[in-house]
Write a structure and sequence with these properties.
Length: 734
Amino acid sequence: MELLRHLADLAVLLFIAGGPLPLCISMLAGPSGRFRGAAAAWLALLTAWCAWELTVVLLLGLAGAYRFPVVLVCEMALAGAGFALLARRRGSLRRAVSALTIGKPLSAAERTVAASTGLVGLVYLARLTTLPILDFDSLWYHLPNMVVWYQTGAFAMMDTTGRPVVEQVLRYPYDWEALSSLFFFPFREDFFVAVPKLVSWAMLGLAVHALSVRLGASRLHAMAAASLALVVPFVLFDLNTLRIDIPFAAFFLAGIWFALSWAADRSPADLALAFASMGLLSGTKMTGPVYAGLIGAAALGVRWRRVPPVESRPAAVLVTAGIAFALLAGAFWYVRNWIEVANPLGLVRIDLGDRMLLPGSITIEMIQRTSLARMFDVADPVHWKTLLTQVAARLQLPFVFLAAQVLLLPRAFAVARGDGRRELWIATMFLTAMSGALFWAHTGTGAQGFSARTVTPFVGQAFRYGFGFIGLVAVVAAVSATGARTGSRWTVAAALIGALSGVFSGTLSEAIKAATFTGNEIEWASGLLHRLGAAPGEALGELVSALQGRLPDVVAPTLAWGFGTALVTVAGPAAWKRLRAATARRRAVVAILVVGLGVIAIDVGRARRDAARDVLYGGVTQWISTNVAPGETVGYTFSVYSYLFYGRDLSAEVAYLPATSGSRAEWEERLADRGVSVVALGPSLGRRRSWEELSAAIVELAWLENAGSDWERVFGEDISVTPWLWRRKGRGAP
């Protein structure tokens, strides 16, 4: 029975993930789908996949019909439409496969870099599916709102903490979370929910590679630069979260590629996908419209005197579809804000002189107050030390290699001048400079909180706002390396050392996060590194103590990456040659074995994730799944980890209980009105507090623990590590 259920879940995953693919493939095979190289074709495929998947979610959520049966029907309809288009166009599948296939065989150096990058992706696919999400923002508001949509079938938003800042958080655009929420449906849990993030990671690398080659970089240098951009430790650390910074960077680089390709080649498919990418940008983050505007300005700057008309009917349909999607994805959440609070930007107030254009409680001055542009003092050595320490902590060798190659920038101009590349090179340099300036001016890049007065180590966390800038630096580095004729040995060595550094440091940061999450008194990674100068012995002692028993989680992925890269590099070509020469029957046997191993791996991954979830979440999700019946509500207060209270299967109803200033009787009446049968409190984010501190700060805790209370604590011991749960006395498990 379990095997049948597992196979059924995999079939649902196949329909949901694969539903749009036939339509995407038909675009590659159509008369308007001309793309420069396999990287560009794969980037087009994945961008179109994101667009179709998001279209399904947004339209169903708008209609209040975002439910599993309707989603499945829509995905099957997309698949049917795609297969019908492929059937109408003779030889279309062959043309699509040809577009996605690398033309010139890879050299030994290129094969090594490709194997290294691919193995990093496989290592992180395993990590994304076997390790639960521990990121603060993901557990605070990304995932809880996604679960509400999954449960209600509509885009209801949840006030997750009652803090004023949440009012603006609930006004963010949520395109990426909407797309990712599709992956709750196949397994009815969060097993695959972070895997779309890996798709966006691949899109970022493909965009860097395609743009680098278009500007004149050699294929090897483009591959190495893309690899280094992808294995920056903080980029890898960000993968197992629901934060939107990697997708945002991917859509930004993809938009640049499609817009500049349209400007150079006049392809309607590029124009349609440029619009789609800009729509995805705008619907992923509130700064997205600014970045989209930069892309549009750069493309029009290249073609300002000769914008080509759209001549054929299929091309016109394709471009119209791209524009329609851009309006849907880009404007959806802003229109919602306009309807609900009369301001598309939520609570951000916009003034023109003395006249208020848009109402709100957050001013532009407040937003800019914590940016590096406002806070960084170039004459203050402490600021420089803080910034450079965070570069060392978060970006490490991969970024250093890219930055060092950029120093040879003058050598790149000769490469970029050839073959009509001059205007595209100028546009790329403009976008690189502007994206760097936007990062410098981004809120929170200097410190956290509107009341901050100096640059703090939090700047390391804010580097994720600059992932798009890092991608463009990689493009410039690839062209510079080609112009400087950096040797293949040095290029491959940099890619391999960068990948080794990225995998080891990324998994080390995850281990530190896990240690922090489970209550060990240790600082977050960049804060710990910041203290090494003042008290290195103490900082290293904390690190070693916290990581006891977790070193295999760091070493095993690094060894797997190294062994896999060596094996594919050495034995891969011969194995591929033998497979191509094998009979159809033998190839079928190999395919069946690969599929079988994949099915087993997914089953093992789910089991490992369940075990890790119980350890890292302290067993609370399993307890709720077992002891909270359908229709019961878990009410919580004084917690930022509300996602933990939905249970493993995401079926529990969860309600936030604002702090009360009334009497105990009024509070009990509020619980009864909301149907709360279980009350949750905490955890207190790793800070060990005495009972006196907690009960003095939280009056509800004293009421729940009072000897005469109608509630009894049924779960939790150390509130600094796990939540405490209470159930009404006499009401046991269902």
